Amino acid sequence: MSDETKFSVLVSLFNWMQKSKSSAKKRSKFRKFLDTFYRNGDYFSAIRLILPALDRERGIYGLKESVLATCLVDALGMSKDSEDAVRLFNWRKGGPRSGANAGNFALVASEVLQRRQGMASGGLTIKELNALLDRLASGECRAEKTLVLSDLIKKTNAQEMKWIIMIILKDLKLGVSERSIFHEFHPDAEDLFNVTCDLKLVCDKLRDRRQRHKRQDIEVGKPVRPQLAMRVRDATAAWKKLQGKDVVVECKFDGDRIQIHKNGTEINFFSRNFLDHPEYEHGMSEVIMQNILVDRCILDGEMLVWNTSTNRFAEFGSNQEIAKAAREGLENVAFDILYAGDTSVIHQSLKERHELLRKVVKPLKGRLEILLPNGGLNAHCPSGEPPCSMIAQSVDDVESFFKQIIENRDEGIVLKDLGSKWEPSDRSGKWLKLKPEYIQAGSDLDVLIIGGYFGSGRHGGEVAQFLVGLAERAAPNTYPRRFVSFCRVGTGLSDEELDAVVTKLKPYFRKNEYPKKSPPSFYQVTNNSKERPDVWIDSPEKSIILSITSDIRTIRSEVFAAPYSLRFPPFVELVHSSNGTTHKGTGTEAPQESKPKRI
Ligand code: ATP
C-alpha cells in the first residue's frame, strides 16, 4: 500500500495539521495517517518528507529561496522581467497582488503556480516524489535541477507544489515539534535519533510501536546530537544554577562545533547539523592519526583557524570560511571525549572524561589542543593572557574570568558541572553559557538608518531590519552629508516599535528593485551584494538616528563600507530623528525606549 500512496494524501494531512490548533489532534491525525497508509512499515519514505531537516540520505539540494526562484522561473519558461518572475525574486516584499503572502516563499510561489497549473492533483506518488527529490539533490548544475523542477510541476497542482517547495526548503511550518512527531511515531524514536542522527535507521528499527527499544549508546562513525549550553544572564545566575557542584569555566571559542570520529584510519568530521565535512581531512587527518593515541575515539570540540601572524584564533565561525582556510592553519580544540577504545564514555563524569582526554590526546600546538583546567591549552596561552579553562570556587572567580575573557575579545564563557555526564541534545543546564552581548560593555554610538530590508514570515512585505551608517566628519559648523555603511541591525524591537519606525520612514523609502541598484549619492557602500538593502532612505535628513550600544568588540568588515563592523548585533538605546530631536514614542513617532534593547 505505502508504495502507491499518493502525495496528495500527505498534502491533505499537512493542510489539516497546519490549520488545526491542537497539538494532540495533530499528533493523532499523523498516527492515523501512518496506521492507514503505512501498515507495511515503510515509514521512512513518508517521515523523511515530514521531517525534511533531519533527512541525511539524499544530501543537500543547494537551493535556497533565491536560487529556487531562478530555477522556477526557468522551469515555468517565464521571462525574467515578467511580473510573476519579479514577484518570485522579490518574494520577501511580494507584489501588489501578493501582499498577504510576502515573506513566505512557498506561498508566493504557489500563487504564481496557480496561474499556470491545473487544480486537479497530478497523481504523483510518495515513492515517485522521493525519486524526483533524489534527482534534484544529485543534479550537478542549475539546468539539471530546473529540469527536475519542471518535471515536478507537470506532475502536481499548485497546492502540492507549494508543499514540495517547503520540503525542499526544509521547513513545513506545521506548528508541531519534531519531538511530537518522534513521540507519536515511537516512544524511543527521539532517543535513537539523538545517538545515531539517522532517520532511516530510526524508521526501520522502530516499526512496532508496542515494542520498546533498548536505549542505544553512541557509536564511532555515527554523529551524535551535541550536548548544548543553556544561556544565562550573568555570573550570579550561573553560579546559583550550579550551586553545590564542582564547576569548570571555559573560554567559549568562536568557531564551529565539530565531532571528530576516528575509527582506525577512517576519520569523520561531523558538524552540529550532523553533516560530514570531508574538507577538513586535508588539514587535519594526519594530525589526528598521529596525535590520538587510541584506535577508536570520538572527540567533541571546536574547529578554529589559528592565525600564525597574530598568534591568536582568527575571528570567524562559518564552515565555508573555515573550509577556505583549511589549507592554512586549521586547529581543533577538543573540550570533551565521548568514546575511547571500545567504550562510550558519555556516562562518566566530566572530571573523568577530562582525565581520559589527557591520556588519549597528545596535544600539538596550533593544530590539536585539549581544553583542561590544569594543563592542556592553558599551558600554551601566550604570556599575560588569561587561561582558557579553570576551576571556579566562587562567583567572584566566575566574574573575574568572564571579565578577562571580554578584555581578551573572546566570545564568552561556558560553565560546566564537572560531575555531569554528557547527554545528547540536552540543554537542561549542565552546561551554561554567558556571553558579553547580554551586558553593556560598549559605549554608545549614533548611527543613521540608511536602508531597510524586508522581513520574512510575520514581517513579510514590510521592512524589518535596517542598514545603518556612520557619519563622515563634517566641516566645522555644518551637518554631515555623507554616511558610510556600518552594520545591519536585526529583529528584536517589539512589533509596535518596529512599526513606529517603519511608518515614520515609509514615505522616504526608495525602492531598490531587482537587480539591486546603486544607493543615493549621500551613502557610501561596498559592491557586496549582501549589503544591498531592499529600500534606501531618500536622504539623510529624513531619516532616524539610532543610538546603539554593543559589545566592545568589532570585526574587520568586507561587507560594509566602514573597515570595521560590530562583532555582535547591537542594542538600540533610543531612537531620534536626524535633526536631533529625541522621540519618546508618541503615537506613530519613534519608539519609547528607556532601557537598552537588542535589535
Ligand atoms: P552560540 O550561538 O551561542 O554558539 P549555539 O546554539 O550554537 O550557541 P550552544 O549549545 O547554545 O550552541 O552553545 C554552545 C556552543 O558553543 C557549542 O555548540 C560550541 O560550538 C561552542 N563552544 C565554544 N567553546 C566551547 C566550550 N568550551 N565548551 C562547549 N561549547 C563551546
Q: Determine the CATH topology of the largest domain.
A: D-amino Acid Aminotransferase, Chain A, domain 1
Q: CATH superfamily membership of the largest domain, which one?
A: DNA ligase/mRNA capping enzyme
Shape from CA axes?
A: globular
Bound molecules: adenosine-5'-triphosphate
Q: Helical proportion?
A: 25-40%
Stretches with pLDDT under 50, minimum 5 residues: 438-442, 573-599
Q: What CATH first level of the largest domain would be assigned?
A: Alpha Beta
User: Which architecture of the largest domain does the CATH hierarchy give at level 2?
Assistant: 2-Layer Sandwich
The computed structural class is alpha+beta
Between the first and last Cα atoms, what is the distance in angstroms? 51 Å
For the sheet with most strands, the description reads: 9 strands, mixed
Number of helices: 19
The averaged pLDDT comes out at 83
- How many discrete structural domains? 3
- How many beta-strand elements? 23
Q: Radius of gyration in whole Å, from Cα?
A: 26 Å
The proportion of strand residues reads 15-25%
Subcellular location: Nucleus
Organism: Dillenia turbinata
Keywords: ATP-binding, DNA damage, DNA recombination, DNA repair, Ligase, Magnesium, Metal-binding, Nucleotide-binding, Nucleus, Repeat
Protein name: DNA ligase
